[in-house]
Design a protein that fits this description.
With 312 residues, the protein is mainly beta. A twelve-stranded antiparallel sheet has the order 1-12-11-10-9-8-7-6-5-4-3-2, with helices on one face. The longest helix has 19 residues.
């Protein structure tokens, strides 16, 4: 009976974990809202700043623990009067593997948690030009996700809870569907040799788990995201032909089940990118490049080197 004391809230904790996993994955796999790089570091160590919102050791370790792979597609389906129809899709894989323990003072042995999420996203949408510079866009996306958790109990204290936790909080697989309506406005213009782009977009996400065999796995993730961003793209001097640089700054406000994992209600992303215009010399690539990305204010704060392609 001694083991039963911490478990009355197990069902609620399991549902909360699933809601956060699915809502967070939807944000992690949306490159408009969040990007991760291939080399992560704390800018406080290299720049004359001392602000923990720019990054710290814990946030860089968290970025390094995350693996996010996304394969996007876009199709233009034609026009009807002034409306442009299209479909966006992406296939994603997210993995987070970390050592942890709730009983580190009693037993320093760490357990091993391995999360894997597979995601398919499809969003039919349409856009309408409000003027020569403004464009309105509307879409309704749908997610299909599968979450697999493998938890290795190595701590002597946590092993005592394994019979109660397995299948609810640990060592389980859960499927979920989610709907994500989105509305956005784009403003684009050229000034001199510079190309400017402003975007504001709002989306709401809600879904359900399905094909589950216990109440603890009946998830209902819900979240929202509001992005406001501006970017400037400009060619390098004449000697550096077919090469551009691009600067961008986004503010992302979030709510619902994605707030606790990101430890904030809003964060910022700044990037500086060098682009090589391929001019159709490479299949499916308009440009390719490398950049520096800075995330400010979230649990994933820090800096990264990033690879970019087909930048607007």
């Amino acid at each position: 009976m001694a083991q039963a004391a911490p478990l009355p809230g197990l069902e609620a904790a399991a549902r909360q974990q699933l809601n956060e996993v699915f809502a967070t994955t939807a944000l992690l796999t949306d490159s408009d809202a969040l990007r991760l790089g291939f080399l992560n570091f704390d800018p406080n160590e290299y720049l004359p700043i001392d602000n923990p919102d720019f990054g710290d050791g814990n946030s860089v370790a968290l970025r390094n623990e995350l693996e996010v792979y996304t394969l996007p597609w876009t199709w233009n389906l034609g026009r009807w009067q002034n409306w442009q129809w299209g479909v966006k899709a992406r296939l994603s894989y997210v993995r987070s593997k970390q050592e942890l323990s709730l009983f580190i003072l009693d037993d320093p042995t760490l357990d091993l948690n391995d999360d894997r999420i597979y995601s398919l996203f499809i969003q039919p949408g349409l856009s309408y030009p409000l003027s020569s510079r403004w464009r309105f866009q509307l879409g309704v996306g749908s997610h299909l996700m599968r979450y697999d958790n493998d938890f290795t109990f190595r701590n002597s204290k946590s092993k005592q809870l394994q019979p109660e936790l397995d299948g609810s909080l640990t060592n389980m697989s859960v499927n979920a569907w989610m709907l994500q309506p989105e509305v956005s406005l784009d403003y684009r213009f050229e000034r001199g040799r510079s190309y400017w782009h402003y975007k504001t977009s709002f989306n709401y996400l809600w879904g359900k788990s399905f094909d589950v065999d216990r109440p603890a796995l009946q998830a209902d993730p819900e979240s929202w995201r509001w992005l406001n961003g501006v970017s400037m793209r400009r060619p390098f001097p004449a000697l550096m032909t077919h090469q551009d640089y691009r600067l961008s700054l986004n503010r992302i406000d979030i709510g619902g089940d994605s707030v606790r994992p990101f430890d904030t209600h809003h964060y910022y992303e700044f990037s500086a990118e060098w682009l090589l215009n391929t001019e159709n010399r490479l299949p499916l690539l308009d440009n390719i490049g490398i950049g520096l990305l800075l995330n400010y204010g979230s649990a994933l704060k820090g800096a990264s080197l990033i690879l970019v392609y087909n930048v607007d």
